[in-house]
Amino acid sequence: MPVTEDTTQEEIRPSPRDAASGRMPRWLPRAMVLALSLVACFQFASWAFHELTSLLLNILIAFFLALAIEPAVDWMAARGVRRGLATGLVFLGVLIAVAGFFALLGSMLAGQMVTMVEDFPKYLDKVISWVNDTFHTELSRVEVQDSLLHSDWLQKYVQDSANNVLDVSTQVLGGLFKVLTVTLFAFYFAADGPRLRRALCSVLPLHRQTEVLRAWEIAVAKTGGYLYSRGLMALISGIAHYVLLEILGVPYAPALAVWVGLISQFIPTIGTYLAGSLPMLIAFTVNPWYAVWVLGFVVIYQQFENYLLQPRITAKTVDIHPAVAFGSVIAGTALLGAVGALIAIPATATLQAFLGAYIKRYEVTDDPRVQGGNRKPKGESRLARARRALRRGGSQPALGADAEDGAGAALAAPAIVGAGDSAAAGGAATVGSGAASSVAVGSPGAVDAAAVPEASGDAPAVGPTAKEPLGGPVGEG
After folding, report:
1. Which chain regions cross the lipid bilayer (predicted)?
2. Total domain count, the chain
């Protein structure tokens, strides 16, 4: 008999016949089979997850890539382009950009390698001369070259490199296969986005469908906004550094500018300094002072980007705190490696926006400990009162310091207060019995409250619960 929640102790307890005969209870074999089945299912699920980790990771990358390019696909689809063709055009643009980056970087590295090989004898002569002068030796370049070429470690290194050619080729082919897998999944996710969302919503109730579609929209907005904002800042950074490198005459300025723009924007926190190190090294080979100029420009531009450029561009896309961004990158790197570092910030921005849409927030208390600085005094400033007086054409004098410090001086306008006996003061104010007076500042026909008693011969009646502040102007109602 299977063991369920409704099974009583009497049903579980062996029958007197089973107890007397010493036989196994009838429910125990089924319970053992059930436990063994659960353990086997858990082991199989763990093995399958471990084997499919690479595929699941590629699907995750493809999903975020599809979210990033979906705004561009939707924009072209809204103008009559089929989604499949629009997705293909977007991927073609991405492919051209990536190929151009690697072509520029490869040309720079190849040029540097050729230059180093050509100048190697010159550098070797300088080193040998320094050693001979310092240690009083008589080394020659021919002897050093022969010793290097016939050394055991160099021959072993060449043999190991030849044996590792097959491993390197296998890794390159594996990397190309992963790129192809990610591209294929991302293409289908972006091209068949509406069909995918329709299939997902078809298994959910109506209220859950609204929540899923809203979460999807938030993810698209944040991921796409992160990519486009970073791309724009990378373009601006690359142009700025290209101008500097061209002025200084540093070689490979276009490739270095592209390197600085991409690395500084897509690797958070340390990306700027990592990107600036390569131009500094290249500039140092031209002139050591050029490296100092490049370092100073990198630091100054970083401050300009952090305080002026980045808040304006990312205010409506991925506005997350730098500490949260840095922590998310560390967590993503620990979980998924380099891929986690790339998708950590858009994933965090999506989660933050999703939680902000569903978490209820309350009004914060007016306390100096939560204001982040000195609180500004309430009420209208003198500049605002003077500006309002100028707009009225000088018909009403602005309140000066004496009027501000005086007791009971305020601008009054015709006000109507609900039920109760009203006291009219020269037709300017109507104040209900026992009700707070409502004052409109700056309205047409407003008169000085201090002048009302002189015009009517009697001061306006103010209820016992009036809340006008003494010694200051009344704010706009």
Report:
1. 31-49, 55-73, 85-110, 172-191, 232-250, 281-304, 324-351
2. 1
Q: Are 368 and 351 in contact (CB under 8 A)?
A: no
CB atoms < 10 A from the CB of 459, how many? 13
Structural domain containing residue 279: 204-359
410 falls within a domain? no
Say which residue the tokens 């089945």 belong to.
37
Distance, in Å, from the CA atom of 332 to the CA atom of 338, rounded to the nearest integer, reads 8
The number of residues in the chain equals 477
327 part of a folded domain: yes
CA 32, CA 26: separation in Å to the nearest integer?
Answer: 11
Cα atoms in the Cβ-side hemisphere of radius 13 Å centred on 102:
5
Please say whether the beta carbons of 252 and 214 come within 8 A.
no
Q: Is residue 364 part of a domain?
A: no
**In angstroms, rounded to a whole number, what is the distance separating the alpha carbons of residues 281 and 284?**
5
Q: Is the dihedral of CA 355, 359, 364, 369 positive or negative?
A: negative
At which residue do the structure tokens 């300088």 appear?
A: 126
- Whole-model pTM: value is 0.60
pLDDT digits (tens, 9 = 90+) for 206-262: 888 888 888 888 888 888 888 888 888 999 999 999 999 999 998 888 889 989 998
DSSP states of 66-130: HHHHHHHHHHHHTTT--HHHHHHHHHHHHHHHHHHHHHHHHHHHHHHHHHHHHHHHHHHHHHHHH
Burial 307-340 (b: 16+ CB within 10 A, else e): eeebeebbeebbebeeeebeebbeebeeebeebb
The CA-atom distances, in angstroms, between 34 and each of 3, 12, 244, 468, 472 are: 10, 16, 72, 77, 80
Tens digit of pLDDT for each residue in 273-294?
Answer: 889 999 998 898 888 899 999 9
Would residue 209 count as lying in a domain?
yes
Return the amino acid letter for 333: T
